[in-house]
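Run log // design_07
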């Protein structure tokens, strides 16, 4: 498990590598990917339930 110090260091490295302006774009893309993944999982569960009937 990562501690607070490690998370801060990783965040600093990300800012240095990508710049502060790229972080919101990255976060937005990550949110969209998470949403699409959840939708895909839900679709799979619905199809599985229909197949069990």
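design_07 sequence
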């Amino acid at each position: 498990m990562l501690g607070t110090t490690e998370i801060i260091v990783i965040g600093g490295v990300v800012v240095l590598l990508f710049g502060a302006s790229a972080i919101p774009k990255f976060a937005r893309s990550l949110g969209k990917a998470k949403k699409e993944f959840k939708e895909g999982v839900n679709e799979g569960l619905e199809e599985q339930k229909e197949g069990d009937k």
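The radius of gyration is 18 Å.
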